[in-house]
Amino acid sequence: MKVRTPCHLCGKELARKDSMLRHLRDMHGKTGDVPLDDQKDYCVLWNDQGKKVYGCLLCGEVFTRSSSVGRHKQEVHDKIRFPCPHCSKMFSRKSDVAMHCRIIHRQDESGDG
Q1: Domain residues for 95?
Q2: pTM, rounded to two decimals
């Protein structure tokens, strides 16, 4: 069974990246460029004010920076998690683990405390 992703604007479920882009363009007036390779996690769109934004190809959520789309994909779609080496807490970012260790366990990343 294919995973269907809902449009973040109207909830319509779509199965493919190109379908989401076509839907965003045709139904919501969002215009943009489809990436030429499958390595990118985003498409380039222009918002209502004519500013360049980046749309997630999996769910259509829009960001002001392309790097934010990559982080969003990792956290939301890939569900990558990083464990704390001292307790059972899990985090979606390595930087959050480091901050947690400094604040909660009073240790830096090297384990010195």
Answers
A1: 81-113
A2: 0.54
Summarize pLDDT for 7-20 with one digit per residue, the tens. Answer: 767 778 877 766 77
pLDDT for res 91:
92
Report H helices in 29-93: 66-72
Question: 107: burial class by Cβ within 10 Å (0-12, 13-18, 19+)?
Answer: middle
Domain count, the chain: 2
- State whether 19 and 32 are in the same domain: yes
Same domain, 68 and 106: no
Enclosing H/E stretch for 103 = helix 94-103
Query: Residue 112 belongs to a domain with what CATH number?
Result: 3.30.160
Q: Is 43 found in the same domain as 10? A: yes
pLDDT in tens, 19-70: 777 777 777 776 555 443 455 777 787 777 778 888 887 787 888 998 898 8
